[in-house]
Each structure stands twice: as structure tokens, then as C-alpha cells.
Task: structure prediction
Amino acid sequence: MSDMTSQDQIPAPSGRMRRKGDLPHKDCAACGRPFAWRRKWARCWDEIRFCSDRCRRTRRAP
Ligand SMILES: [Zn+2]
Result:
């Protein structure tokens, strides 16, 4: 048996991947559930109100 510890899995330095906690969140106007920022919403994040297209269609009228 070898006593050396394998270091195949070295923790990547921070910066490459964002943590989920770092992403902004919003509450869906339809289902009320919080949803996280997505890359496809990068340009229109301020306008996003629904977590998905489904909620976008099925939004309730007051
Ligand atoms: Zn929703």
C-alpha cells in the first residue's frame, strides 16, 4: 500500500465558477417562487419577471 495521498481533485481557485449564492434572485410574478439569474437573461434581467416562459404565459390577471 502506498502512503501518499492522491491529489487528483484539486479544488479550483475561486473565480472560474460563480456560486449560486452570488447570483441575483427575483420572485416570479406568476408562481411567486424565487428564481436565480440565468445567462440568457444577462441583457434583459431588469425586465425579467417570471421564472419561465410557462409562467410568463400563465400569469394571473388581478
Ligand atoms: Zn414562475
In short: Residues 21-57 form one domain. Residues 28, 30-31, 33, 50-52, 55 surround zinc ion (CB under 6 Å). The chain is about 10% helix and 10% strand. The radius of gyration is 20 Å.
